[in-house]
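User: Could you write out the 3D structure of this protein bound to D-mannose? I've included everything you need below.
Assistant: Certainly. Input first, then the structure.
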Amino acid sequence: MEQCWRWFGPGDTVPLTAITQAGAEGVVTSLHHIPYGEVWSVEEITKRQAMIAADPSLKLRWTVVESLPVHEAIKLGTGDLAPLFDAYRQSMRNLAACGVKTICYNFMPVVDWTRTELRRRLPGDGSALRFNLHEFAAFDCFMLERRHAEGDYTEAVLVRARDWFGTASESDKATLLASIMAGLPGAFDRYDIPGLRTMLARYGDIDHATLHAHLARFLAEVVPTAEELGMRLAIHPDDPPRPIMGLPRIVSTADDIRKLLSSVDSDANGLTFCTGSLGAGAHNDVPAMATEFAARTHFVHLRNVAKDPDGSFQEADHLGGDTDMVAVITAFLTEQKRRRDAGQTDWRLPMRPDHGHELLDDIGKGSFPGYSAIGRLKGLAELRGVMTAVAAIKGLPM
Ligand code: DNO
């Protein structure tokens, strides 16, 4: 697999040299400074490529875009969408002209990945990202005061949520809001409580089927362009894989994925297989899904979570947690062999270690939550060990 690393651009506290030291060559990045819905010009794309290639001894290249964001109006299905589809296609053309051909995106309404704690202390120091269902329930029911929110949680979770809210200080509440918003990497999409209420109200009439129809329309608009350009679109699953704040989520289960892949049945309409996002749902058998969807997977995020019975979860070591990472990696190395045997020249799947703990000198560095240097370096090293061993034992291409 092509070992990649997410880099947030010139504002990232983890420099390009760290990527080389971690042993990765592919860079995964996005033009986070461009507002959603605007065209990514060739000039802006080549400027980013020049930064990545500035030191040729690092041998880095921009392999995957994560993300080319989908404008909220497309998810909402409101207004004149034609200019937004045009802009998306133009950005795709410009990226393809610069040789960047794999695009990760998501179709989660309003928020991206969601956690309630960005720094849960680990034994021996260091920290992990965590999702506490009772804290999320406290946010949803008592801070956001969403109507009928309490119906979405069990009484046991609500008891803990009321306790949390009863003793939380204003600063605890502000921290919780900031943690929930931390998954949005761009500068344009943070919400406060009133802003979030407005957004949720706009989704009032949109259920699972309607949101899926909006995704299917988006795919019908952009997949033919991807085919024409030899590009691959790779949708990222919902994290966590369930409805939140009453918002529908449509890339959470094997059935959701089957439905979205068949809505436009083209190789260009593919998946970012994120083991951490899918693995946070007790309903998902992640290795089985990796095997089922490998042929339509264009990008792989490897990360592990440990789930609690109530629906809370914590990011674990890459080889710890609930997902059998050896089985997942075996599925993707087997897929690489299938592609190679079929004569495909670009048979290697880009992967990146997704998230990492804050460890050792990461602590206090202020890296993006989940995107520490040492934590990810450790994750990648462990994953590389598994890839090397499985490839050798099973005679699969690495
Ligand atoms: C989390 C990431 C996601 C991902 C987007 C893709 O760390 O994997 O935020 O980048 O959902 O659009």
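The longest strand covers residues 61-66.
User: Perfect, thank you.
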